[in-house]
């Protein structure tokens, strides 16, 4: 009987110890959770976000995470686990942080490896690895809040990051497209994977490429002169370098900044190879003058026309896509020839 009582007593003592241990663990977990998720006001969140900095010693970052109710939490975690969110709606996370403190400025040329895909269906839309040469781009001033240009300014030279931006804003504001992919809807986002390899100042880049540019310009001028030898239409050359040949003269309104214009065009390279035509689609093209929805040369050409004009326009590469490749169609340093008919201007 005595042994039985001792056994029962031992069971009660063991159960009590288990309960106390569980309570201590819960209390410690709750305390740990409280330390890693400190609720902040929106003002505090903005302040913390502006001071966010990678901590190389601990391998952790201080991050602002916004919940569904819009409330901000200040948390400490590893950088690969959580996205930062800016006040303008950009979401990004640093996959690999560089020790460099150099960040891009407007006008800098950025050497990058970059791809982007639609977040919703995960379809790859662009990859710099498909290009034949090293991918680079000149950083333009952001046209709107939350654009990819703004996101790039958050990175340091050598950083690798994943960035999420509004898809329509990217196509319209950053790429200047009027017709965006049909599967992109309002509110959709693009997911960018970017490694910022090198930042070169605009002046440094221009100086290092001065001889290359001059050689290209000389070659282009020779091609244009040969092209013009076979043309008998009245010719105007603008100060910027456009050559406008008038096939038929109209008498309608001349567009100005803010005008919505409608045109038919056939676009070709200076060797005569056609790569695009509204006539083949039976669908005229519209854009707004001054909103950078098309290349500089095309916009300037239309501003030099009247409704009813039918012109042939030679656009030098510096007024088209410059030293950049455009899609899989237009190589760098391409001289373009547009046959344009201005149908309307409002």
Would you summarize the structure shown here?
The protein is an alpha+beta fold. The protein has 2 domains: 83-205, Chitinase A, domain 3; 210-345, Chitinase A, domain 3 (Roll).
Model description:
By secondary structure, the chain is α+β, with helices and mostly antiparallel strands. It folds into two domains: 123 residues, Chitinase A, domain 3, CATH 3.10.50; 136 residues, Roll (Chitinase A, domain 3), CATH 3.10.50. It is built from eight helices and 18 strands. The strands form three sheets. Strands 5, 6, 7, 8, 9, 10 and 11 form a seven-stranded antiparallel β-sheet that branches. Strands 12, 13, 14, 15, 16, 17 and 18 form a seven-stranded antiparallel β-sheet that branches. The chain is globular, with a radius of gyration of 30 Å.
Write the layout of secondary structure elements.
Layout: H1 2-36, E1 37-40, H2 42-50, E2 54-55, E3 60-66, E4 72-77, E5 84-85, E6 91-96, E7 109-118, E8 124-127, E9 136-138, H3 148-152, E10 160-166, H4 167-174, E11 189-200, H5 202-208, H6 210-228, E12 235-237, E13 243-248, E14 260-269, E15 274-277, H7 278-281, E16 285-288, H8 296-303, E17 310-315, E18 336-345
How helix-rich are the residues, as a percent range? 25-40%
Assembly state (oligomeric):
single chain
- What is the count of DSSP helices, taking H or I runs of 4+ residues? 8
Shape: globular
Look up the CATH topology of the largest domain: Chitinase A, domain 3
CATH class of the largest domain: Alpha Beta
Q: Measure the end-to-end span.
A: 105 Å
Number of strands: 18
Overall structural class, as computed from helix and strand content, comes to alpha+beta
CATH architecture of the largest domain: Roll
Could you state the order of secondary-structure elements as H and E?
HEHEEEEEEEEHEHEHHEEEEHEHEE
The domain count comes to 2
Radius of gyration: 30 Å
- Main sheet record: 7 strands, antiparallel
Low-confidence stretches: 1-22, 25-42, 48-62
The average pLDDT is 80
Query: Could you tell me the strand content as a percent range?
Result: 25-35%
């Amino acid at each position: 009987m005595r042994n039985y009582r001792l056994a029962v007593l031992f069971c009660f003592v063991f159960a009590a110890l288990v309960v106390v241990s569980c309570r201590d663990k819960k209390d410690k977990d709750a305390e740990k959770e409280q330390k890693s998720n400190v609720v902040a006001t929106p003002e505090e969140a903005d302040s913390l976000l502006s001071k966010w900095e990678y901590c190389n010693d601990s391998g952790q970052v201080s991050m602002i995470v916004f919940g569904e109710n819009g409330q901000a939490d200040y948390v400490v975690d590893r950088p690969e686990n959580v996205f930062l969110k800016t006040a303008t709606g950009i979401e990004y996370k640093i996959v690999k942080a560089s020790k460099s403190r150099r960040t891009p400025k407007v006008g800098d040329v950025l050497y990058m490896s970059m791809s982007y895909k639609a977040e919703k269906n995960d379809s790859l839309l662009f990859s710099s690895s498909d290009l034949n040469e090293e991918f680079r781009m000149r950083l333009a001033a952001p046209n709107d809040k939350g654009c990819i240009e703004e996101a790039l300014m958050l990175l340091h030279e050598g950083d690798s990051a994943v960035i999420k931006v509004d898809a329509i804003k990217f196509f319209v504001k950053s790429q200047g497209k009027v017709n965006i992919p049909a599967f992109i809807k309002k509110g959709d986002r693009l997911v960018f994977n970017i490694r910022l390899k090198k930042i070169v100042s605009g002046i440094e880049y221009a100086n290092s490429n001065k001889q290359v540019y001059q050689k290209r310009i000389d070659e282009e001028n020779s091609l244009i002169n040969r092209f013009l030898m076979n043309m008998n239409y009245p010719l105007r050359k603008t100060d910027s370098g456009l050559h406008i040949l008038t096939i038929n003269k109209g008498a309608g309104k001349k567009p100005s900044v803010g005008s919505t214009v409608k045109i038919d065009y056939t676009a070709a390279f200076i060797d005569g190879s056609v790569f695009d035509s509204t006539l083949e689609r039976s669908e005229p093209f519209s854009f707004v003058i001054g909103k950078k929805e098309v290349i500089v040369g095309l916009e300037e050409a239309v501003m030099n026309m009247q409704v009813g004009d039918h012109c042939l326009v030679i656009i030098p590469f510096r007024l088209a896509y410059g030293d950049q490749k455009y899609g899989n169609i237009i190589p760098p340093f391409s001289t373009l020839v547009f046959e344009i008919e201005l149908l309307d201007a409002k």
